[in-house]
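Researcher: Next entry in the queue.
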Amino acid sequence: MVAFDKCETRPGHIDAILNGLDRYNPETTTVFQDYVAQQCEDRTFDCYANLALLKLYQFNPHLLQQETVTNILAKALTVFPSPAFSLCLALLPAYTQPFPSTSSTPAAPTESQHSDFVESVQKLAQLSTLLESAQYTQFWSTFNSDDLYADLVADVAGFEELVRIRIAVEVGKAFREISAEVLEQWLDLRSREALEKFVTDVCGWVVEKEKAVVRVPANKENETRSEVKSEHVGIEQFGRVIRRGFEQAA
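Model: Structure for this entry, 250 residues:
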C-alpha cells in the first residue's frame, strides 16, 4: 500500500514545498492551485498536496478560491472509496458543511451560507455519500438530474470514466457474476454494446450474451476460500487446572 503522503506523479518542486516550511507560506497557494489544475488535466490525484492547500485556506481565508476547492472535491470523488473526500471536506469552513449544526442556539443563516459555493460543496458531498454507500444507480440519477453537477466537474478530465472505473473495481471485489442489466445501471452505460466494450476493454471481464450476465474473474477479494483454524494446546498449559482437580478439600 502506498503511503498516504506519497504520490508517484508529484513534481519535485511540490515535494520540496511539502517537506519544508514553505508549506505554511501563503505565497505557495498559487503554486498549489496550479498543481490542482494540472491534476485535473492529467487525471492524477495528490491528496496530501491538496490537503496542504486547503490547510493554507484555513489559515488565510481571504486567499480561498472557490473553483479550486470544488475541483479538489470533484477529483476526490474519482478515488473513492478512499477517505480523500471526507478529509478534504473536513478542512472547509464550517458554514459549507452538509451537516446540521449541533449547537443548541444555532446562528441565523448569513448570506454566505446561501451562496453558490455552499450549494456546490453540499451537492458534491451528496454524490460522495451515494458512492460511499454503493448507491450507484442513484448516484448517476442525481448526477444527471442537474446541470450544475456537469459544471462542477467540467475541469476534471474524464470524470465519468474515472468514476466508472472505480465502481467497476468495487464490483470486482464483491461479485463473480452480475446481471448485465444491473451493471448497465451502475455504470450509467445506456446500451448493451457500450457495456460490453467497457467491461471487455477496460475491465477484462467476460459477457455471456445468452444469459445476459457479466462474469468477473476470480481475485483475492471475490474468491470463496475455506478457512480452517486449528489450535494446539499443550498439556502443560492446563497443569495448574489439573492439579487443582486432584487437590483435597481442606
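Model: The CA atoms of residues 234 and 240 lie 12 Å apart.
Researcher: Noted, moving on.
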